Amino acid sequence: MISKNDTLFARAQLTTPGGVNSPVRAFRSVGGSPRFISRAEGPYFWDADDKRYIDYIGSWGPAILGHAHPVVVKAVQEAAARGLSFGAPTEGEIEMAEEICRLIPSIEQVRLVSSGTEATMSALRLARGATGRDKIIKFEGCYHGHADSLLVKAGSGLLTFGHPTSAGVPQDFVQHTLVLDYNNVQQLEDTFRTMGNEIACIIVEPVAGNMNLVKAKPEFLQTMRRLCTQYGAILIFDEVMSGFRVALGGAQSLHNIQPDLTALGKVIGGGLPVAAFGGRADLMRHLAPIGAVYQAGTLSGNPVTVAAGMSTLKLIQAPGFYEQLSAQTNKLVQGLSDAAKAAGVPFCADAIGGMFGIYFGSNIPTSYAEMLACDKTAFNAFFHAMLDAGVYFAPAAFEAGFVSAQHDDEVIKATVDAARDVFAKATHQ
Ligand code: KE4
Q: What percent of the chain has a predicted confidence (pLDDT) above 70?
């Protein structure tokens, strides 16, 4: 029987490049046809053939509560019934801004936008406008969305496709973008020593999730903070993925480091398109309409998306939410590691909050180069075997995974049991 996923994929490619609206969904890195999802609830979603999967993508981070949380759905329905969009300010946007500023102390003022790309692109422009400098520093393997000056040896889809610089980005758009090695402290010191007074900003994922999960070493972030302060550069934490995912206060709360600007997204929209950038009030004052740095958006702060975001932000503040989320994520990675070890498969895994990484190699990677050395072929075989078993991991070796509050012990056990069978079969082939 032909899978309806295959039929839909063939049809989708007639009208949409690659048949998808975002490249990583196309399964090009792992091969085969993507699954077209028909519905989702809690830790599960169902494809076009009505096959159920345990979902470890969670919409690439937003679904931290589990899919179709009844409180969030109700908030969206009630907001929608009052009108979908006004293009005028609403009280809900004030409440959302106040909540973000309360939860992330480094954010004194914040502006809502509709995607993580918009958030980081706007933060970069603000940093350049506020400092009058052009050069920016990013790190190889990190992905900050698809703004031109950031598509330079980016991670995520580009890394997965194996061509680290995007076509269509003129060379003079990237001449000011310095790409350094993640977790390389000496290189940071050397770069600032030679051109620190030309640097507008550093943008960094304080927990990297777009070359798979790679944790920043504390001294890496501490050095960044010190150098930016010393040379008058802006430190931007891109917490689009890590914000409200690794801890209620984001990665910055775990490292106790105050960036000058923070980009947020994913969880803060609860699955609807909400992102944000914010930070020091003296920087945010450079933004139009009061300042000279232009930034705008027709649907920024949209009332229906803000309703989803606000109800999500309230629910993740429940007592013990992150302790429980971390406990479940740790059970998953420990279970997978034990299963691989029992089968003699070179495998390891890491976790932080509700985010995890799985690596087909002997050591947890601490850099982009170490990540590239992991066995992608082994990952792809594991991905498909688990998909057949009804477990959906990220369809690319260079992506992190996500656990929701609905991934209970039964769900984790089912995942680990399936992995045990897959690893056992892999070693008997
Ligand atoms: P969006 O423009 O896709 O909303 O956000 C861009 C972005 C910015 N910063 C970080 C740290 C991010 O992880 C992202 C987007 N993450 C990818 C997942 N690897 C989104 C998945 C996709 O591109 O479809």
A: 97
Give, as one character, the DSSP assignment of residue 115.
Answer: S
Quote the tokens at residue 134.
Answer: 């052009």
Q: Are 401 and 373 in contact (CB under 8 A)?
A: no
Indicate which residue of 47, 55, 238, 350 is catalytic: 238
Q: Which residues does a 6 A CB cutoff place in the pocket of ligand 1?
A: 22, 24, 60, 115-117, 120, 143-145, 156-157, 205, 209-210, 238, 240-241, 265, 275, 399
- Give the global pTM: 0.97
Residue of 240, 239, 226, 231 whose CA lies nearest to 200: 231
Closest atom, ligand 1, to C-alpha of 266? 4
CA angle at 88 for the pair 83 and 89, rounded to the nearest 5°: 100
Rounded Cα gap, residues 300 and 118, in angstroms? 10
- Give, in order, the Cα–Cα distances in Å from 71 to each of 74, 160, 375: 5, 36, 41
**pLDDT for the residue numbered 172:** 76
pLDDT in tens, 305-364: 999 999 999 999 999 999 999 999 999 999 999 999 999 999 999 999 999 999 999 999
Half-sphere exposure of 262 (CA within 13 A, CB side): 31
